[in-house]
């Protein structure tokens, strides 16, 4: 399956997220993205740093596609952010970084499960 197919089918196709992108784990290369989901290089740099320093991303929040989200979870594999009833789930695998946004109409746990399952699958196949 192509990286774009993972975004289109495994993430957005579920209806649990409305925007998503996959980057290399350093955040320096875009592998696939949904239309008009523009995560900036600086945002990616801060996200990658957040996996190394969870305290910093928890105190400053996480920025994705120009929007600041309050960090509700941060560890070495996942960062979750929330703004109102919508939010973002960022999952790091060995080689990839999944960034997904869910709308106010989706339960956070449902969106989280979708992104985490894809992350676990990618880790299982060596990514």
Helix-strand layout with pairing:
Layout: H1 3-11, E1 19-24, E2 30-33, H2 41-52, H3 54-60, E3 62-64, E4 67-74, E5 78-83, E6 86-92, E7 96-102, H4 108-124
Antiparallel strand pairs: 1-2, 1-7, 3-4, 4-5, 5-6, 6-7
Helix pairs in contact: 2-3
Subcellular location: Cytoplasm, Cytoskeleton
Protein name: Profilin
Subunit structure: Occurs in many kinds of cells as a complex with monomeric actin in a 1:1 ratio.
Q: What can you see in these coordinates?
A:
It is a single chain. With 127 residues, the chain is of the alpha+beta class. It has a single domain (3-124), classed as Dynein light chain 2a, cytoplasmic (Beta-Lactamase). Helices cover 35% and strands 32% of the residues. It has helices at 3-11, 41-52, 54-60, 108-124, and strands at residues 19-24, 30-33, 62-64, 67-74, 78-83, 86-92, 96-102. A seven-stranded antiparallel sheet has the order 2-1-7-6-5-4-3, sandwiched between helices. A hairpin with a 3-residue loop joins strand 6 and strand 7 (96-102). Helix 2 packs across helix 3. It starts with a helix and ends with a helix. The mean pLDDT is 96.
């Amino acid at each position: 399956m192509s990286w774009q197919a993972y975004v289109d089918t495994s993430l957005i196709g579920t209806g649990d997220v409305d925007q998503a992108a996959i980057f290399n784990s350093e955040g320096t290369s875009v592998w696939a993205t949904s239309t008009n989901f523009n995560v900036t290089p600086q945002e990616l740099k801060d996200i990658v740093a957040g996996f190394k320093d969870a305290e910093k991303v928890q105190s400053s929040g996480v920025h994705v596609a120009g929007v600041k989200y309050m960090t509700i979870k941060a560890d070495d594999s996942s960062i979750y952010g929330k703004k109102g009833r919508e939010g973002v789930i960022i999952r790091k695998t060995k080689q990839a970084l999944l960034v997904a946004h869910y709308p106010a109409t989706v339960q956070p746990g449902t969106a989280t499960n979708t992104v985490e399952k894809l992350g676990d699958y990618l880790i299982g196949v060596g990514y």
